[in-house]
Write a structure and sequence with these properties.
The chain is an alpha/beta fold. The protein folds into two domains: 90 residues, Rossmann fold (3-Layer(aba) Sandwich), CATH 3.40.50.20; 108 residues, 3 Solenoid (UDP N-Acetylglucosamine Acyltransferase, domain 1). It contains three helices and 25 strands.
């Protein structure tokens, strides 16, 4: 069991608080955000403190963190907060729902895996990854750091997902392909071949578009 402080005050942070409270051995003891966004002193009936002065309230020797932040700026905001907190000496929890079918032995820190995900054998999940509910991660597939997979995504076997990639609801990726870093794969997209870095794929486009 560990005491946990959650970064964020949005819906993701509220859901993370609920799941950690009801489906883990962790105890959420507070929340933190940057001072410019702190408009109250509590959230979910727990202390809400400035991230800039977090050590004064919750030292890294006493708590772990989870960054309950979404995919803003293609996951780079969440990655920046994670990196800064790590540099300041904080450790991080990883949550895997008890309702997840999990054969994966390699899951990184600060990763959040919701209910009804299927992680087949020999998969690898990096640091700071979000797997929302109902995804299929096929055997021998790798999801690199800082990715955000929404819901009901099918990632077939032996797929490699590059860092910072966002994959939208109901997207399907065929087996044995590589998805580049910083990709945005839109809802309902069908990806049948490997992609390059910094590309956008949505059903209306037949080829990737760089950004």
């Amino acid at each position: 069991m560990s005491k946990v402080v959650l970064f964020g005050t949005g819906p993701f942070a509220e859901i993370a608080h609920f799941l950690l409270t009801n489906d883990s051995e962790h105890t959420v003891v507070g929340f933190t955000v940057h001072e410019a966004y702190r408009t109250t002193s509590t959230f979910c009936d727990l202390p809400l403190v400035s991230f800039e002065t977090l050590e004064q309230h919750f030292p890294p020797t006493e708590v772990s963190l989870y960054t309950a932040v979404g995919y803003k700026n293609v996951n780079q905001l969440r990655a920046q907060i994670y990196a800064e907190a790590k540099e300041r000496g904080y450790s991080f929890i990883t949550y895997v729902s008890s309702k997840c079918t999990n054969w994966c032995k390699n899951i990184g820190e600060n990763t959040f895996i919701f209910e009804d995900n299927t992680l087949q054998p020999f998969t690898r999940i990096g640091n700071n990854v979000v797997l929302w509910s109902g995804n299929h991660i096929g055997h021998h597939s790798t999801i690199e750091d800082h990715c955000y997979i929404t819901s009901h995504v099918v990632i077939s076997g032996q797929v490699h997902i590059g860092a910072y990639t966002f994959i939208g609801v109901n997207a399907t990726l065929r087996d044995s392909i590589t998805v580049g870093q910083l990709n945005i794969i839109g809802a309902g997209a069908l990806i049948m071949k490997s992609t390059k870095d910094h590309e956008v794929y949505v059903p209306e486009r037949t080829n990737g578009e760089a950004f």
